[in-house]
Amino acid sequence: MTATEEDYVDPALERVKTGIEAFDDLVMGGLPRGRTTIVGGTPGSGKTVFATQFLAHGIADRGENGVFVTFEESPDEIEANMAGFGWDIRRWRTENKLAFVDASPRDHDQMVVGDFDLAGLLTRILHAARGAQARRVVLDSISQLFYHFVSDQSAVRRELLRLASALKRQGLTVLMTAERNNEYGEISRHRIEEFVADNVVILRNALDRERRRRTIEVLKMRGSHHVEGEVPITLVERQGIVAVPLSSLRLEQQSSTKRVTSGNGELDRMCAGGFFRDSVTLVSGATGTGKTLLVTNFLAGGVAAGERALLVGFEESRGQLFRNARGWGVDFEAMEADGRLKVVCIYPEAQSLPDHLLMIRELVEEFKPDRIAIDSLSALERIAPETGFREFLISLTSFIKKREIAGLCTATNKSLVGGHSASEQHISTLTDSIILLRYIQEGDVMQRGLMVLKMRGSDHDKQVRRFTIDSGGMHLGQPFGGAPDVFGDAAVARP
Amino acid sequence: MIVSKSPGSENFPRLRLYVAGDAPGARRALFNRNRLLDALENKLDIEIIDVLARPEEAERAGILATPTLSDESVSPPRRLIGDIGDMSQVFEFFGFRKKGISP
User: Fold this and answer.
1) A64, A79, A307, A315: which one is catalytic?
2) pTM of this structure
3) CATH number of the structural domain spanning residue B82
4) β A280-285/A341-345 pair status
5) Is the ipTM of this complex over 0.90?
6) Residue range A294-305: average pLDDT?
7) Is it the case that residue A325 has pLDDT exceeding 50?
């Protein structure tokens, strides 16, 4: 976690929650009360949603009414466009909790012939704020003012500054949106932020490897610390903007000493008694080495011990997973019928990575599992830009640990023998334990080998053990003689 | 000086002048309003609306800037923003003609 090098941090700054939880965390609890924040973004980056959410959260959850000054869409359009996020703007208008100042382009002929001020606008905002007893004000977007008074940009600048100070004097917390031309470049088209804003926030909707990647970044917070860097966000129906928190904010997870079974007694022994309760284990191997079997054992072992288990599958269908399990003597159907197991299968391509993460989080909130398996991370990696994938993994692993859930993730090697998958490289530092499954050539026979490569906070068996798979599941056998090279291209056991 | 509305009509529209309190811009606009009325021999009616005292009027008319001289008898309204110091500009914008001067 890093903070800006602001000299002065006002400890008495009261915070105004935006309703976007992870964003509020970035700015130490919320936007400072009575300050002006500029939210910059390209068209379609979610500025109006952010602004509306700020007001909606105030009205619905904080008892703080709001004023919406709209320069682009009409109040009715905003009402209609934002309804999908579950915000009942019409009702709030009727109940006088939300007042609109309609500064959207109206049909009129206008000519500027001399010096002017924006007292008309200011007095309308103050009038609306008084009427609704508002504490929050949104201006969306102030860039429109520059188009409206195109002949005198310096007057607009001066007047915006005057407007911002007048609203501040009323103790109002103000959020102004501003348009940007590029995702990475000057902060706003008219450099508004330089003179009017205490705080600057950027919303991005960048194209990365043919995929849209939405993020939010806090650029400046006057008199306050903030967390630097872009944080992924997603737009969720009935909710609005949801920021996906990065674990780096919260590395305070407890490390449990409680062990849980891996679902395989022999593997438990190799791990000195099982996995830790709040740990994430990565199972890495080529296709067919038995990753899904380990997952099945992991789930069945949990259920047998009276736990609740969740499986999120990205590679195989429910039908395939259930059939596989049956083949190994595990009855997923009965477990689901008992409410002990939940299996959710979804195509990686069905939604973006942040959406996948949110889905997993929601499933966990809902089902409250004691253990979770994700099969496989490699499938998810296909759909993501590299930076996005790493953020996803960080968020996922920290979430799992924070919930004190035992996690098991799989990663598939690209080559059949040896080698590392990209997701393995990403995740190896983030997971507590790593189990390798490998094909190992022994004479003219291909064997399967299992090795516990790493287990944080515990001793473990460091040998490469051969194993077989039959209708009873996985059976670990004797260590390989010699020293099979489980990392190289050709894994050969030398007798 | 004889001035008439062009084309043909002898009736001037009723205009509204939106100002903000006694800001310097407002004072200049009020001064210039009186000059206009004199020039038009008081045949023109310009109602003064102080937006600070009557914000609901500013809201109704959708006023952002002051001073604004507005003709709301036409649709859409025609608006001149600034302190209306240049009288011929005002005449031209609202379609007034001074007899004997205009072609």
Assistant:
1) A315
2) 0.68
3) 3.40.30.10
4) unpaired
5) no
6) 94
7) yes
